[in-house]
Structure formats: structure tokens, C-alpha cells
Design brief:
The chain has a single domain, classed as Aminopeptidase (3-Layer(aba) Sandwich). It is built from seven helices and seven strands, in the order H-E-H-H-H-H-E-E-E-H-E-H-E-E.
């Protein structure tokens, strides 16, 4: 299979099916307080300790700040819990914010360690790409990855991403920047609620 053929291959589902459940501002606030029970009740799923780690709390705090500063963009910044095949929450995913002035939107996702290397990252990436393609304002999808994150780099392969540069992130250090055109060659399929893309 040539690189061009691989790039144009339709976004078929991977063996792992996932659905997204919105983590609203109320849920993220409860997570910041370390109240997993309240957060889970509001979200409608059972959240794990992975959602109240120091790194996760940093993310909830950052997203809540974004949403407070610009409520009109909140739909792009609400994070999504990723629910796997067995009904277990395996991670979280979303967008870093709305598309910029040239239509670029950045995706981000994190799978909890017990569920890694089982196909959930690929399934999550596919769902994010479908949601991005469903938005007319999105032209390009961006992903930033640490150069030593071999697993994430492998997950991107086959989806048309090309390395376009690098950047320094205050939280994560050096990151490689990849971009791909928004794929509209197959219908966007939404799992769960029929809301606009949740982001984060």
C-alpha cells in the first residue's frame, strides 16, 4: 500500500468502539475538588482516580479558565470522557479550543495506563477526527506529541498527518507538531448525545 493510498483510506472504525460523554464545567469543578462521586453522578458515568491526578486537575483548571473567559466557546473546551467496550471509562479526549483564523483545531486525548495498547487510543483518534470533519469551520487538524512518545506517534500513522514543526510547551516540554486535512470522505458519526463537539 502506498503512502497516498494509506492517506486517502476511509476512516473506518478500529476494533475498539468508544463513545464520548461530556464532562461539563460542573463535572470538572467536582473533579478539581476531588469529588469523584459527584462528578460521576453529574456525568452519568463512573470516573476513576485517573481523573483526579495532579495532571488531570491541571487540565480541568485550565479548561474551566478558558470557558469562564469566553463562554461562547465552551462547547469546544468541555472535555469528553471516553467509554470503552465494557462500559468502563478508559480516558478523556477533546479539542484544545475552537478553530483558529485559518480553520485549524488541535486535538488531545489521554488513555489511562490499564487500557493502553488495546486499541482505545486509535478509536479515540478516529472519533475526534470524525467530529472535526463534521464542523464546516475546521480545515486542518493538529496534534502535538512528545518526541519520545512512540506509542502516540504510531497511533497517528495512517491518518494523513505530516510533521510541520516543533514547539516548546511549558507543561510538556518539547513537542512535535503534526497536521492533517479535515477528512470529509466518510460521514461523521457521533456516539452518545447529538451535541456539538465537546472539546478540551
Amino acid at each position: 500500500m502506498t503512502e497516498e493510498t494509506e492517506r486517502l483510506r476511509p476512516l473506518t472504525r478500529s476494533p475498539r468502539n468508544v463513545r464520548f460523554v461530556e464532562l461539563s464545567g460542573e463535572v470538572m469543578s467536582a473533579l478539581l475538588d476531588g469529588d469523584l462521586a459527584a462528578a460521576g453522578t453529574t456525568a452519568g458515568v463512573t470516573l476513576t482516580e485517573y481523573f483526579v491526578t495532579d495532571r488531570a486537575r491541571w487540565l480541568w483548571r485550565f479548561r474551566l479558565g478558558q470557558m469562564a473567559a469566553d463562554p461562547g466557546r465552551a462547547r469546544w473546551m468541555a472535555r469528553q470522557a471516553v467509554v470503552g467496550d465494557e462500559g468502563l471509562v478508559v480516558g478523556h479526549a477533546g479539542f484544545h479550543g475552537p478553530p483558529d483564523e485559518v480553520g485549524t483545531v488541535e486535538i488531545g486525548y489521554s488513555i489511562a495506563p490499564p487500557f493502553r495498547r488495546r486499541g482505545y487510543a486509535r478509536s479515540t483518534l478516529i472519533e475526534l477526527l470524525r467530529r472535526a470533519a463534521a464542523e464546516p469551520a475546521v480545515v486542518t487538524v493538529r496534534a502535538t506529541i512528545s518526541p519520545d512518545n512512540v506509542a502516540s506517534l504510531a497511533t497517528l500513522s495512517g491518518f494523513g498527518f505530516a510533521r510541520v514543526g516543533e514547539q516548546w510547551d511549558e507543561e510538556d516540554g518539547l513537542e512535535l507538531v503534526y497536521e492533517a486535512p479535515a477528512r470529509r470522505d466518510s460521514p461523521a458519526r457521533w456516539e452518545g448525545s447529538r451535541q456539538s463537539p465537546g472539546c478540551g
